[in-house]
Amino acid sequence: MENLLILGAGGHGKVVAEAAMLTGRWDDIAFLDNDTTLNRVIGIPVIGSFDTYLDHSKAYSSAVVAIGNNENRFVWLTKLEQAGFKIPVIIHPSSIVSKFSQIESGTVVLAGAVINADASIAKGCILNTSSTIDHDCVIGNGVHVSPGANVSGTVTINDFSWLGVGASIVNNITIGSHVIVAAGAVVISDIPDSVMVAGVPAQIKQSYGDEL
Ligand SMILES: CC(C)(COP(=O)(O)OP(=O)(O)OC[C@H]1O[C@@H](n2cnc3c(N)ncnc32)[C@H](O)[C@@H]1OP(=O)(O)O)[C@@H](O)C(=O)NCCC(=O)NCCS
């Protein structure tokens, strides 16, 4: 048994922590958060701010990041990895994950999510509550698939993209990096990098250029 540090004690942090508890893999779980008023969250102690992470590396051998922002999550994940923390995959016991799928470190798979055969999920992703990733999908680093979003077979989603709640992606689509797919959108054609798409069918509403 090992101890787990979770960076981020906000709403997403709570959900990740509960999933981690339910796995029974860790003796002790603690949060780090920059809100110094927090003492305990869902019964789990908040033992310092983010930048104290090195002070806890002896007591907590494993760490994950529970920050919603895709880029920030990945920055912190990289720092933890470089500091020698083990970065686990956290899989809620009520999710369904194919034994023929691959999931890299720091990704969290939350309650009711389904990942089907030959799907490949990179580092630091959030596969949120009741989201689905079908067969042969390739999901890049730091992607967030929000609650209830459905990704059909053989879809590629590149790094740091975010699918809003209830979004749907039809099969054989490629979505670029740093894309935002608005809540409820239905994507039926390929999407370039760094745009926001919305609607049914999804259309480009904003382009971020070099901002991201
Ligand atoms: C996509 C999103 C981030 C855009 O937010 P924003 O940058 O503040 O954008 P705006 O509200 O200014 O909207 C820009 C345009 O897109 C449209 N739009 C935004 N979200 C839309 C949606 N979900 N469906 C349809 N159109 C949408 C707006 O109507 C507006 O259109 P217009 O320019 O023709 O008037 C936000 O609307 C959204 O869907 N967030 C998802 C939240 C979510 O899933 N959270 C889960 C957390 S776990």
From TrEMBL:
Transmembrane regions: none
Alphabetical list of Pfam families matching this protein: PglD_N (PF17836)
Keywords: Repeat, Transferase
Coiled coil feature spans: none
Gene3D superfamilies hit by this protein: 3.40.50.20, Hexapeptide repeat proteins (2.160.10.10)
The organism's place on the tree of life at top rank: Bacteria
SUPFAM superfamilies according to UniProt: Trimeric LpxA-like enzymes
Residues in PglD N-terminal domain copies: 3-79
CDD domains in alphabetical order: LbH_AT_putative
PANTHER family linked to this entry: ACETYLTRANSFERASE (PTHR43300), UDP-N-ACETYLBACILLOSAMINE N-ACETYLTRANSFERASE (PTHR43300:SF7)
Record-given protein name: Acetyltransferase
